[in-house]
């Protein structure tokens, strides 16, 4: 269920998992849910939140030589928390 992806983002925001683990697990889950059709069944709120989270995961990099639009671990956690709060999941 896509709520599992939301819960994964919560774990990352709360520092329960590393940003690298979040990135890997999020994209694995996204791919599996997309292939199975689960993503298409989400409520609008879950879908909207997941699209924001997808963008954040895409912009995350652990490499210290980042572009201005890329996020480090600290910024990723802060933006995940903001997105989750904006959509009522925190």
Q: What does this entry look like structurally?
A:
This protein is 67% helix and 0% strand. The chain has 90 residues and is mostly helical. The protein is globular, with a radius of gyration of 12 Å. The protein starts with a helix and ends with a helix.
What is the N-to-C order of secondary-structure elements (H for helix, E for strand)? HHHH
- Helix proportion of residues, in percent? 55-70%
Write down the overall mean pLDDT.
Answer: 95
User: What is the β-strand count?
Assistant: 0
Q: Main sheet?
A: none
Helix-strand makeup class: mainly alpha
How many separate helices?
Answer: 4
Which runs of at least 5 residues are low in confidence (pLDDT < 50)? none
Domain Colicin D immunity protein: 1-85
GO molecular function: toxic substance binding
Protein name: Colicin D immunity protein domain-containing protein
GO biological process, one term: bacteriocin immunity
Draw up the topology in text.
Elements: H1 2-13, H2 19-36, H3 44-59, H4 73-86
Helix pairs in contact: 1-2, 1-3, 1-4, 3-4
Key structural traits:
90 residues, 4 helices, single chain, mainly alpha
Short description:
67% of the residues lie in helices and 0% in strands. By secondary structure, it is mainly alpha-helical.
